[in-house]
Write a structure and sequence with these properties.
This protein is α/β, with parallel strands linked by helices and 589 residues long. It folds into 2 domains: 304 residues, Carbon-nitrogen hydrolase (Nitrilase/N-carbamoyl-D-aminoacid amidohydrolase), CATH 3.60.110.10; 200 residues, 3-Layer(aba) Sandwich (Rossmann fold). 35% of the residues lie in helices and 19% in strands. The radius of gyration is 27 Å and the shape is elongated. Helix 4 packs across helix 5, helix 6 packs across helix 7 and helix 7 packs across helix 12.
């Protein structure tokens, strides 16, 4: 029975940084070689990063990504790693998207954006072995596209991208079941979602049983703008048994020895692929090495426990902020530390992401700021060691109000906008990334001051409802106590009634439904897509439904200007929601 020591290389690439990402592949392959791995599997989009968005439409980038696979194969061989089969996700030119006018010398502007978008890229995978690309397979979109099986040391290794395996409408699993490989290797780039804690394992187990073969899934880890990948790469047996799982939100290399059946299908001569028809599909077989290696003592894979949903969400926020700052060249952050819940949680996330010495909390008391707000902010600074200073704003707010004759809401909003100016001024002067501290509940209904507390380059809580923010705060404090540390978030910041302190005695409840009700309504609307009538049928008060939908509609222009932040829900605010700002539609209850 052939044995394959398989390395699941869970890496954190940066979108567009092809050379840097290739360095990560080489480093991790060398690490796997030191542990005598025969097969090293990297995630989908390992060479390009994910998500690419419109970058995949730029011809120069697509061409560079295609060349990178061949260059990487030669480099691995030159560094003594050519005898290891390396499977890596990258990008290839889509043969169905070529623009026949792109190379026309008579084109008026051959360097225009349209010309640059002519050759769209398609996600693909490549097997690098012996200094060359020996297998290449694109995401399956057309009948002419093929599936690949590579024979390595006597075992048949089937290859697929996640998008060809997980949806029920795709056919890779049924094709490979007929082809009877020893193991199905899936290159993935699945984002973290709070609601899907157990789904990756259950999905892999289901597909392994369907295919009748062991399954290896390798997922990306790390943050990229609004997307956070949590890794959790895994190996399951043909019966669905969990053989190994990598940690969440951590790069590294998981080694698992696989005992696989002998490949029995006829294969062509080495490196000369041959196609066979499986139903209406094509399977391309390639011989890399034959026969099986001498038997050796196998190494069982380690199984990292899955984080509970609150711990995973918090770690996703930390990962998203850490990578956004690091990948964009920011070493430190600044935020308004008000003494309230949201700013306290954002500060805790920033401390865990970057270190307390890189976090600058600015207390900006106004005429209406309560004493407990000031003391709570100072208490958090003292407990955590973050950089803290107080910048009173009353003397700045007064001249604005007096000069413009502002009253009511316009007057209330001035203090928020002055705070935004203070934060941006400090950012410009000292080079910190400004963090916006608003949560999903507030952003959804526009309970924020545009160009005031919406100021920021990154918003860690933009996809976290208010009730979940409180849950996260309690979890973070409990985790600190369990670890023998001092809780970072003052208990009064968690328990006191939420208030923007816009006027004496003002509370959020003056303008909004109770957050428990509001968050339940928003979840039903945004995640489950319920109409106004369906919300009422579920028991939400009709006047509340009508008012919340109105607030969401009129706040859309403001939401679209909010800073990006990590997406943790299925239908996130940053990438997934596309609503018109000018919108005459009104639902009937």
């Amino acid at each position: 029975m052939p044995q394959l020591r398989t390395a699941l290389a869970q890496i954190n690439p940066t979108v567009g940084a092809i050379e840097h990402n290739a360095d990560l592949v080489v480093t991790m392959t060398r690490h796997a070689a030191d542990r005598y791995a025969h097969l090293v599997v990297f995630p989908g989009a390992a060479l390009t990063g994910h998500p690419l968005d419109d970058l995949s439409e730029q011809q120069t980038f697509v061409d560079a990504a295609e060349r990178a696979a061949g260059s990487l194969a030669a480099r691995l061989d030159a560094e003594g790693l050519g005898s290891i089969a390396v499977v890596v996700g990258h990008l290839s030119p889509d043969p169905n998207s070529a623009d026949p006018n792109r190379a026309d010398p008579n084109r008026a502007d051959p360097d225009s954006t349209a010309a640059n978008r002519a050759g769209a890229g398609r996600r693909s995978l490549a097997v690098l072995y012996g200094g060359r690309v020996v297998v290449q397979q694109m995401a399956h979109r057309a009948p002419a596209d093929h599936f690949s099986i590579a024979r390595l040391h006597g075992a048949d290794v089937a290859l697929a991208l996640g998008e060809d395996v997980w949806p029920d409408s795709n056919c890779a699993v049924s094709v490979y079941r007929e082809s009877a490989p020893g193991v199905l290797v899936v290159l993935d780039s699945q984002p973290y979602r709070r609601a899907h804690t157990d789904q990756p394992l259950e999905r892999a187990q289901h597909r392994a049983r369907q295919a009748g073969t062991s399954l290896v899934e390798v997922n990306l880890v790390g943050g990229q703008d609004a997307v956070v990948h949590d890794g959790a790469s895994l190996v399951v047996g043909a019966d669905g048994s969990l053989l190994g799982r990598a940690p969440q939100f951590s790069d590294g290399c998981l080694i698992v020895d696989l005992d696989l059946p002998v490949g029995t299908a006829s294969v062509p001569e080495r490196f000369a692929p041959a196609d066979e028809e499986v139903g209406t599909h094509i399977v391309r077989r390639t011989l890399l090495s034959e026969p099986a290696l001498p038997s050796y003592p196998g190494e069982p894979g380690s199984v990292s426990p899955a984080l509970n949903p609150t711990a995973a969400t918090y770690t996703a926020l930390v990962t998203g902020l850490r990578d956004y700052a690091r990948k964009n060249g920011f070493e430190s952050v600044v935020l308004g530390l008000s003494g309230g819940l949201d700013s306290a949680v954002v500060a805790a996330v920033a401390i865990d992401a970057l270190g307390a010495d890189k976090v600058h909390g600015i207390s900006m008391p106004s005429t209406y700021s309560s004493e407990h707000s000031r003391t709570d902010a100072a208490a958090m600074a003292e407990a955590t060691g973050l950089n803290y200073r107080e910048v009173p704003i009353a003397a700045m707010v007064g001249p604005f109000i007096e000069s413009l004759g502002l009253t009511g809401l316009a007057e209330e909003n001035v203090q928020a906008r002055v705070r935004g100016i203070v934060l941006m001024g400090i950012s410009n002067q000292e080079g910190h990334l400004v963090l916006a501290t608003g949560n999903k509940s507030e952003v959804a209904v526009g309970y924020s001051t545009i160009y005031g507390d919406t100021v920021g380059g990154y918003a860690p809580l933009v996809d976290v409802p208010k009730t979940h923010v409180a849950e996260i705060a309690r979890w973070r404090n409990a985790a600190a106590v369990e670890g023998g540390d001092r809780p970072p978030i003052p208990s009064s910041s968690i328990e006191k009634a939420p208030s923007a302190e816009l006027r004496p005695g003002q509370q959020d409840a003056d303008s909004l439904p109770d957050y428990a009700l509001l968050d339940a309504l928003l979840e039903a609307r945004l995640e489950r897509g319920l109409s106004g009538a369906e919300l009422v049928a579920e028991g939400f008060p009709a006047p509340t439904v009508q008012e919340v939908l109105r607030m969401m509609r009129v706040a859309e222009w403001k939401r679209q200007q909010y800073a990006i932040g990590p997406q943790i829900s299925e239908h996130g605010f940053v990438r997934d929601r596309r609503m018109p700002v000018t919108n005459g539609w009104r639902e009937r209850m």
